[in-house]
Design a protein that fits this description.
single chain, mainly alpha, two-stranded antiparallel ribbon, 11 helices, 2 strands, about 75% helix, plasmid
Length: about 280
């Protein structure tokens, strides 16, 4: 029983981290119909920027906030200079953002080298937290789970309970009508893109604190975000959460029982969902 509970908690931790990254990707890819293949680079950039800010100021929270803001600004700059002129040309969007991700990854590698970095979170996040049956579980991992819950709740309230969220949903359904009513559609779209990029930067600090920061993490989390959004359904926040849970549990239980085929299990899950429901489990039909 203790083994299965620990395994489930580990799966929840991984799923929470995947959701933190994929929620921003779902906003950009699902709601805006913008193919942003630089989302993994945003994650890695946020991790490194947060590490620098936290090291310089001695405040992990400042690193967390600073990374989110810095990556949101970079995302805005990328959208204004590279993506805005491409319109709905998804192939060109993919090629341009892949190139941007390669440049960012090489610049980060040149500056930080190939070594692994580790955050120093606040003392309160060190050690373990007593839990029933398992006795203790790493506090930082519980923080990852709590962060995913808070981000998910915040995004749901933003999209479904605010005027900004109403404009976002209206812009997704019919941009022309929204523009004809006098609303600045481009400003709304820029806000969503900046929010999605900022969430990736936030996830970089949280993921770097629970795990580590190293080259190659950008490709890993880009791939995981793609799989999560494909399984859950584009533009669906609940779908991103469900997809992250399925991938997290498939990955961790696969590593425990069939380690040689754990990665294959994840992609088999994606293929099965695409075969039965191509728009994703909670995507629009």
């Amino acid at each position: 029983m203790r083994f299965y509970i620990l395994l489930s908690l580990n799966a929840l931790t991984v799923a929470s981290l995947y959701f933190l990254v994929a929620s921003g990707f779902s906003l950009i890819f699902g709601l805006l119909r913008t193919v942003n293949m630089a989302h993994g680079a945003f994650y890695l950039l946020g991790a490194y920027v947060g590490y620098d800010i936290a090291s310089y100021t001695g405040s992990w929270l400042l690193g967390l906030v600073g990374a989110a803001v810095a990556v949101a600004v970079v995302g805005l700059a990328m959208h204004l200079t590279l993506l805005r002129t491409l319109g709905g040309d998804e192939l060109r969007q993919a090629l341009v953002t892949i190139g941007f991700a390669i440049v960012v990854g090489d610049l980060l590698l040149a500056h930080y080298g190939g070594i692994t970095y580790q955050f120093t979170p606040p003392e309160i996040l060190y050690g373990t937290t007593p839990l029933p049956v398992v006795r203790g579980y790493p506090t930082i991992r519980l923080v990852v789970i709590a962060s995913a819950l808070l981000v998910g709740l915040g995004l749901w309230l933003l999209i479904h309970r605010t005027k900004v969220g109403m404009l976002i949903r209206a812009g997704v359904d019919d941009r022309d009508i929204l523009s004809a009513m006098g609303f600045n559609v481009q400003r709304v779209l820029l806000l969503v893109f900046a929010l999605g990029a900022g969430l990736a930067g936030l996830a970089g600090v949280i993921g770097g604190s629970a795990l580590s920061i190293s080259p190659g993490e950008d490709a890993r989390f880009l791939l995981s975000s793609l799989v999560v959004v494909i399984i859950g359904g584009m533009g669906s926040l609940a779908g991103a959460a469900l997809g992250a849970l399925l991938i997290g549990f498939a990955e961790q239980f696969g590593l425990a029982f069939i380690p040689n085929y754990a990665t294959l299990l994840t992609f088999l899950l994606m293929v099965a969902v695409l075969a039965v429901r191509p728009q994703g489990l909670l995507g629009r039909g």
